[in-house]
Design brief:
This protein is an alpha/beta fold. Helix content is 36%, strand content 22%. Helix 6 links the parallel strand 6 and strand 7.
Length: 153
Amino acid sequence: MIHERENTVAVIGGLGRMGMVTRRIFAEAGYTPLISDIKDPKTLPAREAIRQSGIVFFSVLPIENIEGVIRSTADVFDEAHRVLDNASWKGLLQQGYEILDQRGVSICSTHPLCKEDQPLFGQNVLIAPFGQNPQRATLLAEQVHQRVGMVLR
């Protein structure tokens, strides 16, 4: 069960265009994606998706809503979680990420420089570690994006 959780990614906002790209990236890299999206009540609630996963990927618009999701689910996160995102405006994530950083969560912000209808191979991705303990999340971000042929920046 622990190994299963470790290889499961909760894509929060997984029904949006970039959420679908994220889902594709992780699925192609061999991870099991769980989708949570307020647009569809049939998807898992964020709390349950986070509880079942070892990886949480925020792909929420508007970006400023991510902090609210973090505040309402912070108690579900533990030191085993790795958190990533594909938000274009990183400043809006800082306060929410500081909450998770204080809980010992490993965080790395990413930004794939491609659109949902483009092939992933050869596309650039920005990797931006965050906080006191970014190593595990950064390594994950690098490995996942390299597995699908993206170029790390």
